[in-house]
Amino acid sequence: MSYDSDTQSKMDEMLENEKIEAIMRQARPQVSVIGVGGAGCNIVSWVKEKKGGVAGARLIAANTDATHLSIIHADRRILLGEHVCKGMGAGGYPERGEEAARESIEQVRKDVTGSNIIYVATGLGGGTGTGASTVIANALKPSGALMIGVVTLPFAVERFRYNNAKNGLTRLKTECDTVVVIDNNRLAKVAGDLPLKEALGVANELVGEFVKGITETITSASLINIDFADLRAIMERKGIAAIGVGEAEGDDRIERAVQTALDAQLLDIKDSTKAFGVLIHVVGGEDITLDEVTQAGEMITRSLPPKARVVWGAKVDPSLGGKVRVMVVLTGIESTFLSNQPTRLGALLKVKQ
Ligand SMILES: Nc1nc2c(ncn2[C@@H]2O[C@H](COP(=O)(O)OP(=O)(O)OP(=O)(O)O)[C@@H](O)[C@H]2O)c(=O)[nH]1
Ligand SMILES: [Mg+2]
């Protein structure tokens, strides 16, 4: 059958558009977020319920506690270690969490098949999250996905959980490309010394925003997209990462947000000038300008060693109104939590004007 030239060229155009769409779909990385244990599941549930999920990512909640799992919002819920834990949690014993993850590992594996980026989100210190996250990361690593742990450290009032958390982080670090660590104690201070329950809510929100923010600047059209290859370059086999967040509105909002994000890193780190790379993520309401985004990038870059690799992305979130939010993630750093030699970060990391 033959068509007149006008019809033919329209058909060619349609085919070309379809081809571009198909290639784009294929090129877009597949992302899975696995929340492990009570805190991990709460984080996933917060993103799913309050933020409508993450564009381009599958949200999975995995816990040994059936009652807790039953109230969690996720794309997929997995009860870990049905035989080992009988749906009753790991009782604060990481060895039990490990065993439970081993029992259910095939289920987890099946759910993340084909993922290019896997986030493992957990609150370290208990049994399930601390024990199972390492087993899960270890089992999924051979798939070749970029494995990013996002964990919180226990509050000082949870002293007895500290050792659990320390051992857990030491092990998780070896199984993930990067583990982004948030110290709940620092977070609570930044958020204004909140009561425990509210502080946990702030932690959920922060981890959720991190995962959603970074993922969506990769998977969907943004003001400035982050390239998956660039993310890989600063996160692959980099160990520990720290994160800082700043929000501001009004005059000089971008400077103030950047300064807060740099001053209030949520993990004590030994020497920020030794960071391998930095990920800058800027979100603003409809009125955010490219100039502001560039300004944020320049300010942060000036405060880092010249060799540090910088990756940045920006997106518009109309719900922010006149506010801007800046997230700074320093990768390849050493944490004092693992070495027990606290130093003050504020003095080390100042924006040079
Ligand atoms: N971000 C956040 N952290 C939490 C939350 N609940 C607890 N945590 C923190 O996470 C740590 C681990 O607690 P859970 O997640 O409840 O423990 P689990 O992994 O379920 O372990 P088991 O209950 O022993 O099986 C705690 O010590 C707290 O520091 C939460 O809702 N959000
Ligand atoms: Mg639990």
Brief characterization of the structure:
It is built from 14 helices and 10 strands.
How does this structure look, described?
By secondary structure, the protein is α/β, with parallel strands linked by helices. The protein folds into two domains: 29-219, Tubulin/FtsZ, GTPase domain (Rossmann fold); 238-348, 2-Layer Sandwich (60s Ribosomal Protein L30, Chain: A). The protein is built from 14 helices and ten strands. α5 (94-112) packs across α6 (128-140). The protein is globular, with a radius of gyration of 21 Å.
Key words describing this protein structure:
alpha/beta, 10 strands, binds magnesium ion, 60s Ribosomal Protein L30, Chain: A, ten-stranded mixed beta sheet, binds guanosine-5'-triphosphate, 46% helix
